[in-house]
Every structure is written in structure tokens, then in C-alpha cells.
Amino acid sequence: MAASMAAASGGSVTRRLLRGAARGLSGGGGGGGGGAAAEEPEGAVVNVVFVDRTGRHVPVRGRVGDNVLHLAQRHGLELEGACEASLACSTCHVYVSTPHLDRLPAPDEREEDLLDQAPQLQENSRLGCQIVLGPELEGAHFTLPRVTRNFYVDGHVPKPH
Amino acid sequence: PRVCVVGSGPAGFYTAQHILKHHNGAQVDIYEKLPVPFGLVRFGVAPDHPEVKNVINAFTQTARLERCAYYGNITVGRDVTVAELRQAYHAVVLSYGAEDNRVLGIPGENLSGVYSARAFVGWYNGLPENRDLKPDLSCETALIVGHGNVALDIARILLSPLSLLRKTDITDCSLAALACSKVKRVWLVGRRGPLQVAFTIKELREMINLPGARPVLNPADFTGLENAIKDAPRPRKRLTELMIKTALEKPGEKTVEVQAAATQAVAPREWGLKFQRSPQEVLPTADGRRVRGVRMALTHLEGSGDSAKAVPTGDVEELECGLVLSSIGYRSLPLDPSVPFNTQRGIIPNSSGRVEGVPGLYCSGWVKRGPTGVIITTMNDSFDTAQSVLEDLQVGVLDVSASREGFGAVGSILRSRGVHPVSFSDWEKIDAAEVARGKAAGKPREKIVDPQEMLQLIGH
């Protein structure tokens, strides 16, 4: 337990060393037993759930250090990253489940400015490319905004006619 | 099923991407009138915003898919008609954007020294049709009509230090012109107030922080606004707060560079926002040929928020300037007589991207919704249209039992008309040449602005 928590907070080299030590000592911890060392990815597991645009829940085993945008894309979720995580668009906009939202570092000014541009902005909106998984995000839900038909950028509601 | 997309900008590519991803059998052909793809991502996004252009990588991946083909150098409506495309494909999606601009419609608009923002942006971004613009930058004061992001882009390009612009993909020719520019003051003039500005906070902040330039905002324009925005939606609130803060900032709080410039007795460049001024006439020089100023009607606002209307009060003001850029909106044009077009709104009448009254014809992007919005807006909109196409394929509204020839049919039509399409790998040769030319100058690319040169390069 202690080994995997230490592994979670250290840098990648530290994580590898500690995981190796943990395996040697107890065989437990986040990495999974035995197995070819070459296959083993970095960091302890963080289980999260993506909710896609149809409402379908997609559980995903992430790792500490994973970028949420890239994680979603690797698992086939339709989360675009038009500017490739360079803080120049808002296409990776997601909603973060409430308890986990507050555990994230506050968005910097650049992210806030871009969130202003995201359709259907909510209190729990964040840019996926700015979220990095840590153990505090275990169980987090990242919901992709539903794109309703005939939506408008600023939430304008068309008058019925 | 064979799908044709007309236009290779973000709308075209995002529509293609979505259809290809959600239909295993669809073949999507993307047509483009220029030899080179990507539309406004290449020709509209400012040179100093390279990250926004990263989306080109996603589009390139789409273009390289086996079930996707790119055909450049084809002007739909001239080289091939929409009717001919509808014969060759099961579905045709019009994503050709907005190639024109709204006009002020005031006397003097055609004087030398007055340009549309669209043409000016096209000029510094290497759009072939604007390569000979030769804007006159020999005056001190420029007036931009409009309070949108395009207006801010132009102000920023006019006032940016050369050292920053030199490293971008701005054309060499524009760089040379800007190096000789005398423009040191840019006014952005809008007929409504601070609460109606259309630009966004990221771009405003960038302008405020521009090295060597100081913002000039009149605190009087912002009295009482703090209160008015108390309950405004977050984006409007933050944007207005930033303007208020900037307007109330004392000279002593300016950036180090600006102070340094001031102490060297080199007046920093400056830019400002003027509100509730509606241009009535562009005033000519004594010889009647060039602009010397603009007469503007002072307005008051009726209503509030986004729907506030500017009404002339009867008072006027004249502003001296030698360069006028009208940045009041892009505008789509009708493509082909067989396609319904709403001239008043400048869009193709549609419902969720299905063109009204024409089954099998769709539209996405600015020609569908109007010429506003950023990448995410167009992306969502394109996915919406793609959904309509996919639904229609699924429920049989589009009859795919009859096979269509796709480019097989169009190709022979084009050949008979002497039109040579440019393939995606042809574009990649042009791309490589541009990158190589830019390298020597430390630029990401040196854009080729002559379509003939592009065609020669690929052996056409």
C-alpha cells in the first residue's frame, strides 16, 4: 500500500524503482504481479469512467500521469483535440464529477479564457487536455457534452416559429 | 455509399471525418476550388496563432484514409455543376464557407486606402486572390470598423513587433510591407457598446499584452458597467471586467517594454476601442482619391445585451485616418442556381444540415449557419450534418441500392473540360516545398501565393 502511494507521487524513474522494490518485498502494489517487465506501463492504476455523448458509460483503467484527452482518445471516445493540447481551442471540453472537480489544480487563466468559448459551459467544465490523472481522481466521471441539434455557441435559444 | 463534400476547410473535413468514422463502407471525396486544402485554417487563422492550425494534422490523417480522396483545383458551379455531382454521388455536402464580405454601403467605401478585413487577412495569409492587394501602410492612423476577433487580429498584425512576425508563416511580401509600415495607431470602432463586443477574451488579452503597444480605452465608456454585468453569463462578465480593468489602469502600471519605449522617447504604438460610432462616410483627400478620414454618427443603444440596436443620435464625429479596414463580417455566396440560397441571411436554407427541398443535398459550416464561430463551433455543426447524412443512409432516405460512380463519372467530365484535379499527394509536394522555402528564413513555411506556380510545381 505504502509502496504504491509513494510510487504515485514520485517521478517516473522513482516510480519504476519503487515498484521494483515493492515487487521484491511483497509482490503486491499497483503494478500487477510477475509478468514481463518490458510490458509494464508507468504509474499506479486510476479507474475512471468516461460518459460518451450518448450517455453510455465507458469504464477505463488509466494510469497516474495519463492525460485525460489522450486517454479518452486511446479508448475510442469521441473527444477531439483540435489544437493538440496546446491551449488554443476548446474541443476537449468535458464535465468533471463533483467531488473530483475540487481535487484538480485550479485552471490557469488561459484555460479559463478558452472555457468561456465552450458551448454549454457548466460549473464543472474543464478542458480534458489539462487534466492529468492522479490517485485522487479514482472513480472520477468525465462526461462529454451532449451536442444538441440546432445548438448555438453562447447558449442562445432559437425562438420557436 | 459515395459522398461528395464541397470545400476542404474545417467544415468539409470534420463532416468527412465523422461520416468515415461511423460508416464502414462510405467513400468520401472532398472537392476544393484552390489547389491547396484547409480553407480558413490556412488562410484565415492569424500567422501568429500556429497552435490553432494543429487541426491540420487531424485533417491530414482523414485525407490519407483509403476511403477518402481529395480533389483540388476544381470550382464547383463552374468546372462541374451541383446537378452533375448529385448524379455521381449518393449524397453531396456543401461546405464551401464564406468567400465574400459584408459591405458598409457608405460613400467613399471605394476610395484608395479602404479595404475589407477579409481581403487584408487574405493578403497577409497568402490567399491567391488577394496577393496583389498592396495595401498602403504609409499613414499613422488606421481605423478598423468592427469589434470582432478578425478586427483584433488585424490590429495585432499591424502593431506587432517585426521580430515576432518574422518567425511566422506570414507571407514574405506582407512582412516587407509591414517593415515599411508607418502605422502606429489603430482604432477599433463599433456602432454598439462594450457589452456588445464580439471578440473574445483570449484575443483581447493578447492585444493588451502586445509588446510595444499600449491600450487606449476611455474610462467614461465603462461607467456603471461593473454593475450591469453582475448577473451576466461568465464569458461576457470576464470579458467586460478585463476591459474595465484595462480602461482604469494608470499609466504607471504599464508594461516594462512600453515604459522603456517611452523613456527612449519613442512613442509606443497604441490601439484603442471606440464605441457607439457608426461610419457614415469615408472622407476623401483634396485630390479626391484616397481616404483622409471617416465621418461617424454617434449612436445610442435601444434595448440591451446581444439584441441592442444602435440608433444615430444626430451628432457626428470625424476621425482622421489613412487606412480603413471594414471588419463587419464575412458572407457566403450562392454556388449554383440549383441550390436554394437565402440572400438575406447569406446561408443555404436547411434543417440540421439537410438542404430544404433537395433530398440528398446537405450543408455544413458557415454556409449552413452563418459566418461566425471558432473551430469547436464548426466541428459540432459538421458532426450534426454528418449525423443527418448517416441517419438518411441508415433509414433509406438515401437510396444506396443504385450504385453511383463518384469520381469515376466526375473525372471524365473534368477531363472533357480541361480541368486537372490536384491530389492530396500533390498537395504534400507543395507543402514540402513551402516548408523547405521557409526553413532558410526560420519560418514554418513560405506560402506559395500563385496558383500557377503551385500547378507547375506538381507538373500540371
TrEMBL record, chain B:
**Necessary cofactors:** FAD
Q: Which SUPFAM superfamilies match?
A: Nucleotide-binding domain
The reactions it catalyses are: 2 reduced [adrenodoxin] + NADP(+) + H(+) = 2 oxidized [adrenodoxin] + NADPH
Q: In which pathway does it act?
A: Steroid metabolism; cholesterol metabolism
Provide the GO biological process annotations. cholesterol metabolic process
Task: Supply the alphabetized keyword list.
Answer: Electron transport, FAD, Flavoprotein, Mitochondrion, NADP, Oxidoreductase, Transit peptide, Transport
Stored InterPro entries = FAD/NAD-bd_sf (IPR036188), FAD/NAD-binding_dom (IPR023753), Ferredox_Rdtase (IPR055275), Ferredox_Rdtase_adrenod (IPR021163)
Which Gene3D superfamilies does the entry link to? FAD/NAD(P)-binding domain, NAD(P)-binding Rossmann-like Domain
Tell me which residues bind NADP(+): H147, G148, N149, V150, R191, R192, E203, G373
GO cellular component terms listed in the entry, alphabetical order: mitochondrion
Q: Which residues form the FAD/NAD(P)-binding domain?
A: 2-158
- Location(s), subcellular: Mitochondrion
Tell me the residue numbers annotated for binding FAD. A11, E32, L40, V76, W366, G373, V374, I375
Recorded GO terms, molecular function? Answer: oxidoreductase activity
**What Pfam families does the database record attribute to this sequence?**
Pyr_redox_2 (PF07992)
Q: Any idea of its EC number?
A: 1.18.1.6
Report the principal subcellular site: mitochondrion
**EC top class named in words:** oxidoreductase
Family of the protein in this entry: Belongs to the ferredoxin--NADP reductase type 1 family.
- Protein name as catalogued: NADPH:adrenodoxin oxidoreductase, mitochondrial
